Amino acid sequence: MVSFVNWSAFALVSLAMVLTPGPNMIYLVTRSLLQGRTAGFISLLGVILGFVFYMVSAALGLTAILIAIPYAYETLQWAGALYLLYLAWNAVKPGGGSVLSPRTDLGIDSARKLFTMGFVTNLLNPKIALLYLSLLPQFIEPEKGHVLFQSVTLGLTQIVISFSVNLAIVLTAGSIARWFSGRPAWLAFQRWAMASVLTALAVRLALDRRRA
């Protein structure tokens, strides 16, 4: 079983990452603004299927990796901490654009294409790949057994959080875009606040020596 402390920490990491603008958020906002909420929701279902694919792949692979390879956890721990710092930098780096300034060159697509594009967008999203390969293993405790069950539990937690946040984004994309367009200071505050959260999480993960 995943301890409550580890589960809570991973849930916070998942929340911070889904709130950090990336390919998934940009695609969902764009579709919702250009083609409506229904198109955004169908696209979101495709994104969720991408999460399920990564969860199953990571859970099956991590079960063998964490048990068979010495120092696997420590390596992934440092990789995850560095990745969080990378996300923090991307949130505040000069010239970073807002997710609420989406592409306008997308056409009107069928439900099947929307779903497929959402799936492919998530599948090719390096942020999600690294989440499952570098961050999720840090919250698994092999000494407690049931590594596969722990992996699935954490993966489902991430999926539920991501679905909830992205659904809210799909339903309110137009209103959020209009609100932020007249309040650039709030956009800057959101970026710096998110960078601070990610940096704090990176430090916490890097200094965690419970398995050293």
The number of helical elements comes to 8
Per DSSP, what share of the residues sits in E-state strands of 2 or more residues?
Answer: under 5%
Distance between the termini: 20 Å
Q: Main β-sheet: number of strands, strand sense, barrel status?
A: none
- Tell me the number of strands: 0
Derived structural class: mainly alpha
Mean of the pLDDT scores? 78
Helix content: over 70%
Rg, Å, rounded: 18 Å
Task: Give the topology string: H per helix, E per strand.
Answer: HHHHHHHH
Give the number of domains.
1
Low-confidence stretches: none
Overview of this protein structure:
By secondary structure, the protein is an all-alpha fold. The chain has one domain (4-207). It is built from eight helices and no strands. It has helices at 4-18, 23-35, 37-68, 72-92, 111-123, 126-135, 147-181, 184-207. The mean pLDDT is 78.
